[in-house]
Structure formats: C-alpha cells, structure tokens
Design brief:
Alpha-Beta Plaits; globular; binds iron/sulfur cluster; binds flavin-adenine dinucleotide; 3 domains; 412 residues; alpha+beta; eight-stranded mixed β-sheet; 30% helix; three-stranded antiparallel β-sheet; single chain
Length: 412
C-alpha cells in the first residue's frame, strides 16, 4: 500500500498568520502589566454570562487573575483582524479558494444564518470534504455520527461573509509601521503608533509613507551578517530571493539530508531559510520540496457539499474555536490507533506543531492560535509514522499541508 494512503490532511480556511515576534512581544506587554501568564485563549466561548465564538480574548495569570475584554487584551485581535501583522505571502496566497490542497477543510461557517441555518456566532464548523478517497469519507462519516450537522451545496460556503475562500486579505497600510514599531520599541508602542497613524490617515485620507501593497513581499531576504553564526561560516538565502517567495513552512529544512538549512527570523519576526554552504552538497532536494516555488504542481481538489457541524460533546465544543470538528476528526483517528499533528501552545505560549498520540495531547491543539506556528521537524516525524504503518491526521494552514505533501513526495 502506498505510504500516502494512511495520511489524511486537514487545512483551515485561512486569513493569514501573524508575526511570531509580535506575538511574543504582546505576551511580554501583558506580563508587564498583569504578571506572569499561565494560559491564553484567542476565542474563548464564554464572557460575562455570554456564550459564542466571537468573544474577546482571555489571558489567565499565575496569581489567579484573569483579563478578558480589557483594553490591553483587545489590542492583539485589533492588529490581527486589521491585517497589520501578517506574513507577506498571506497577502498573495493561492489557497484563498475552493480548490484545496487538503483532503478536508475546516473553517467557521460564516454566513450560515443567511442560508437558514443556526446562528453561526454560537460556533459552527464548516467542513469541506475535498477528497473522495474511501479513508477520508469514513473519517468524515465518523465526525458526522458524533455531531449535529446540516448539508449545503459547497458553493454556499463561499459567500460574502466568508471572503477567505475567494481572495487574499489586502495588507493594511500601517502594517510596516506596526511591525517595525513592535520590533524596535515593543508591542504597546508599535500598536499605539500604528493606531495613531491609521487615525491620522483616516482623517486626512492621505497615503501612508509605508507598506505600499504593491511592494509588499518584493523586499529581498537579507542573509545574516558574515560571522553572525559561529557554527556556519557562509550562510546564504539561495532558496528565496524575496520575502514573497517563502511561506516559512519549513519543508526545505525537513528534507535537507545534510541538516544544512535553518530558519532565521527577519526584522518583522517571520522565519526564512538560510543555507550553510559548507554543509550543503547541492542535491537540490530543498528546492524540489518547496511548495511556493512549485505552486503549480500541488494537486488540489474541490468539495461538492459543505457541512455545518457542531459536535455533541459540549465540554469539548466549549474548548474549540468553532463547532469542534477538529476534535471529532482527531478523536476518531486516535481511537483507530493513529496519530494527530496540530498546533498547540508550547513553552512560553508560543504556537508550535506537535505530534499527538493521546487525547490529552490532541486537546492542546483545540482552538485557533493566530501567530505562525513553528513546524519544527514534524514533516519528518509524519513520514516515520507512515513508514511504521500508522494512520496520520495532519492539520495546519493550507501552505503547511502543501509543504507536507511535497515533502512526502520528495522524501519517498
Ligand atoms: C491562523 C488562522 C486563521 C484562520 N482564519 C479563518 C478564516 O479567515 N475564516 C474561517 O472560516 N476560519 C478561519 N480559521 C479557522 C477557524 O478559526 C477554526 O480553526 C476552524 O473553524 C476549526 O474550528 P474547530 O472548532 O472545528 O476546531 P478547533 O478546536 O478550533 O481546532 C483548531 C485547529 O486549528 C489548528 N491550528 C490552530 N492554530 C493554528 C496555527 N497557528 N496554524 C495552523 N493550524 C492551527 C489546530 O491544529 C486544529 O487543527 C483560521 C484558523 C487559524 C489558525
Ligand atoms: S495558507 Fe499560508 S500563506 Fe496562505 S494565508 Fe494561510 S498562512 Fe498565509
Ligand atoms: S541542496 Fe541539498 S544539501 Fe544543499 S541545502 Fe538543499 S537539501 Fe540541503
Ligand atoms: S520550503 Fe517553505 S520555508 Fe523553505 S523556501 Fe520553500 S516556502 Fe520557504
């Protein structure tokens, strides 16, 4: 049996990932004001007696206090939703479409009430079964068997309330001011500086000095200064000339047989690969695995129906961002003896991709985290699991799913 038959991929309807540097700076900003952070939730399902999936961000601190709906905890979502903090490629991304690289797509079923369904603000997952493979159909049927669900024509999901199935988010003109401000002076200063500039721009209706959308992503990726890394004498950015050439997905790092590639953060806090020329043997595998430079070779599929899903397990539903479909899929794979890959908050509450073989590990992946995750060595680990004959469910952004698919193709 081909290795890929045991792999099921699940991507998200994706509005982009925020700078990990800005995220870390935001957490430090909160800690300066409130004390040491314990946990963070982007979309908790309760707030002051209200329940739903559009409630304000919640931070819990080690001294037992909590901040939710406060001016400071609103700053992150304002910057994220305002498109101040996204990776350059998110503004020019081929995956804002109904043509999907993953077997299954999950997202919020925004626009559901206009179709006569329940109020989507309660939290309803949109599930698109893109692949007709028997394994995928079995998994989606298992999800539906533990859920309340309704079926619609797939095109109904691509409605005006759900723009990220049709087009990329426009960059905000204060994006550069925000990210540079955060890098130089910390989150609070960067945020209020960008807010002030946005206000003045609105008042004067003038063009900002910065972040011309036409230039975004065209900036060169600068190699680190010579001698900046004691273990690598000559570091190059041969793989990516400009920031728009790279998703930061890490497929190249995972595939390199010589361990010659590392990810380095640029001034905006996004990671790009650098190659140690002394270790590189010019095999070309990194280039072949790259989903950005081989975009046209990535197979995509399109669902014919859209499911609106809420899992019946209310405890797990309350921990999810939408309707809990991720848990319905993940728990089935785990029960069948498989493993699940997803994004959890790791050390310091930073989003990382993790391998889960137990329910408690997979529960850490529930809920959206809006900064870009560090994939680490997960693609290699997926391959090991597939070679060991295990069923694998990999969840992530569409570019991470495309990266895994190219990685598996090149590495086998
Ligand atoms: C960065 C980001 C942007 C999104 N943008 C949209 C959007 O514009 N429109 C829309 O309809 N839906 C969007 N979603 C999806 C939505 O927020 C829910 O994740 C989705 O509806 C599934 O919800 P659920 O209740 O079924 O599962 P949940 O329990 O909420 O499951 C969360 C799933 O998201 C994965 N995940 C969490 N954080 C990340 C991350 N940083 N990178 C990669 N994977 C992650 C987990 O591995 C898990 O598979 C986005 C999600 C993320 C992470
Ligand atoms: S798929 Fe990747 S590049 Fe596209 S918006 Fe999501 S994170 Fe950004
Ligand atoms: S060409 Fe081969 S050895 Fe060199 S960095 Fe790429 S994958 Fe590694
Ligand atoms: S494989 Fe991913 S991280 Fe590496 S260059 Fe390509 S897009 Fe960037």
């Amino acid at each position: 049996m081909p290795l890929e038959d045991n792999l099921i991929t699940c991507d998200l309807v994706c509005s982009g990932v925020a700078s990990p540097m800005a995220w870390r700076s935001y957490l430090r900003y909160l800690e300066r004001h409130y004390g040491e952070l314990e946990t963070y939730e982007h979309r908790p399902k309760s707030f002051g007696g209200k329940h739903g999936s559009r409630l304000p961000e919640r931070a819990r601190f080690k001294d037992g206090t909590m901040a939710q709906g406060a001016a400071r905890t609103k700053t992150w979502s304002k910057a994220y939703v305002g498109r101040w903090s996204l990776r350059p490629t998110c503004h020019d991304c081929p995956f804002h479409s109904m043509e999907r690289p993953a077997d299954i797509t999950i997202g919020d079923f925004w626009g559901l009430s206009a179709l006569g369904g329940v109020n989507e603000d309660e939290g309803v997952t949109l599930v698109l079964q893109n692949s007709r493979r028997a394994e995928v159909s079995r998994l989606v049927e298992a999800l539906l068997s533990v859920s309340r669900w309704q079926e619609y024509p797939a095109n109904a999901a691509c409605n005006p309330s759900q723009p990220r199935l049709a087009s990329s988010p426009e960059p905000n003109k204060v994006r550069g001011i925000f990210l540079r401000g955060v890098a130089r002076a910390g989150f609070g200063t960067g945020f209020y500086l960008a807010l002030a500039v946005a206000g003045v721009r609105r008042m004067l209706r003038q063009n900002g000095k910065n972040a011309d959308p036409a230039l975004l992503g065209k900036e060169p990726v600068m190699p680190p200064a010579a001698g900046s890394d004691s273990g690598a004498k000559r570091l190059q950015n041969r793989l990516v000339a400009t920031k728009g050439d790279c998703y930061g997905c890490g497929a190249c790092v995972n595939v390199c047989p010589k361990g010659a590639i590392r990810m380095r953060e640029d001034a905006e806090g996004f990671a790009y690969p650098v190659i140690d020329d002394d270790a590189c043997v010019s095999c070309g595998l990194c280039n072949k695995a790259c989903p950005r430079s081989h975009g046209g070779d990535i197979p995509v599929e399109r669902a014919s129906v859209a499911y609106a899903v809420q899992i019946e397990d209310r405890e797990r539903f309350s921990k999810s961002s939408s309707g809990g479909a991720f848990w319905g899929l993940a728990s089935r794979v785990l029960l069948d003896g498989g493993v699940v890959y997803g994004v959890a908050f790791g050390d310091g509450n930073v989003p990382v991709h993790v391998r889960c073989s137990t329910a408690s590990q997979a529960m850490r992946c529930m809920g959206s985290k809006y900064a870009q995750s560090d994939v680490g060595e997960c693609y290699g680990s997926v391959l090991q699991d597939l070679r060991a004959g295990r069923k694998v469910l990999f969840t992530g952004t569409p570019c991470q799913v495309a990266a895994l698919e190219r990685y598996v193709e090149q590495a086998t």
